[in-house]
Amino acid sequence: MAVRRSVKFLIRPTSKQAAALAQCLEDHRQLYNAALEHRRTAYRKAGVTIGYGEQSAELKEIRKTDPDGQGRWSAGSQQQTLRRLDKAFAAFFRRIKAGHKAGYPRFKGRGRFDTVEWPATKNGASWDSQPHEPATRVYLLGIGHVRVHQHRAVKGRVKTISVKRDGARWYLVLSCDDVPAEPLPATGAVAGIDLGVASLFTTSDGEHVAGPRHLLTTADRLADAQRDLCRKERGSERRRKAVARVAALHAKVRRQRLDTAHKAALTLVRGYDVIVHEDLRIANMTRSASGTIEQPGRNVAQKAGLNRSILDAGWGVLLRVLAYKAESAGRELIAVEPRNTSRTCSRCGHCARDNRLTQAAFRCLGCGHAAHADVNAAINILRAGLALRQAAEAA
After folding, report:
1. How far is CA 64 from each of CA 30, 71, 108, 154, 273, rounded to the nearest angstrom?
2. Distance between CA atoms of 278 and 351, rounded to whole angstroms?
3. Cβ count within 10 A of residue 258
4. Active site residue: 27, 117, 278, 312, which one?
5. 194 is annotated as an active-site residue
6. Complete edge-to-edge strand list for the sheet that includes strand 274-278
């Protein structure tokens, strides 16, 4: 079985290459915004819908009239930027059709456009462009051969090459097709996991994996950096450096959270053949409780603190990493409805709000069964997942 995977490497451009990469991002951002304005104006003034095909056909003339600007970069990368806009409009119309909050595509500010993508078909980019040198390099048209810190082998066929800016760092992202799966030997074990704040997750076997709370650990340093930022004059060089310090701290927390998710997910796929988790709607769970002026919310500060703790735990990151690791390892991942899993007794099935005495203590009002609340919930999650699995096999 072959799967599609992405690998991410740190790249080390020279100062000249870093300046060229920054200019490449800026030109692609301007192209994206110009294409968006083109679509808006055509529909508003003439009722005409402009698509990717028409805008891609105009690239040749744009590059010809601006040889020192847009003409410097690969046409393939510019087509990918136009496809990115086309996907944003497709998602917009899909949300309208489904009756959800639409969210019209926005113009990208300087801090909102950080990735440029090239097709890996000799169209302005080439992976491993100088294989006989000790250091691996990637070739990007208009930028040159950029050194790559390759820490792992690249498997499969490289389909697209992307460069992403994250604060002061630059990363290379390779999207690869036909990556061979690496199935792990069967263990015969199954587990349900209950995601939490005090513990990152608890298994139905009773194991608790602590959540590192990376944002909380960095909170004091981050608060100092943000206070320093508030004192700087807008547009000044000192403010730019202060913004970079805040961004660097957030980036470090993000990397730590991702590292924790990788290690936790690897432990799960190595230990269990079937893993069941709650199908959580994290965006709904972390909505603000502030309300409106007419109807202000209650317990806003407490809800804000809970939202911060949920996001700091990184449930979404863990589930995303777990999904692709399970696929590659040949494990089965099942998502179940989370409703009442923490209120239901895993022994007799009695469901009541008062069954859960505290955050950690569970005592059934029906049969008197006492257990750790998270372990009880994980057992219920596992039972629900196995029932879904059995029903799917019988169908």
Report:
1. 16, 7, 24, 36, 57
2. 18
3. 17
4. 278
5. yes
6. 208-210, 199-203, 190-195, 274-278, 332-336
CB 82 within 8 A of CB 88: no
Listed in sequence order, the residues at least 6 apart from 247 whose beta carbon sits closer than 8 Å to its beta carbon are 167
**pLDDT tens-digit readout, 159-196:** 999 999 998 899 999 999 999 988 999 999 999 999 99
87-135 residue pLDDT tens: 999 999 999 999 988 899 999 998 899 999 999 877 789 998 776 677 8
Residue bearing tokens 């061979």 = 180
Q: Where are the domains of the chain?
A: 2-180, 190-394
- Model confidence over 61-74: pLDDT tens digits? 999 999 999 999 99
Distance of alpha carbon 139 from alpha carbon 117, whole angstroms = 13
Which tokens sit at 107?
A: 């113009």
Tell me the average pLDDT across 284-311. Answer: 80
Rounded Cα–Cα distance for residues 6 and 325 (Å): 12
N- to C-terminal Cα separation, the chain: 25
In this prediction, residue 331 carries a pLDDT of 95
Which two structure tokens, joined as six digits, stand for 310? 């949920």
86, 194, 273, 312: the catalytic one is: 194
CB hemisphere CA count around 154 (13 angstroms): 22
Rounded to 5 degrees, what are φ and ψ at 25?
Answer: -60, -45
Q: How far apart are alpha carbons 116 and 245 in whole angstroms?
A: 24
C-alpha pair distances (Å), 124 with each of 10, 34, 36, 78, 386:
20, 22, 24, 10, 50
Enumerate the β-bridge partners of residue 292: none
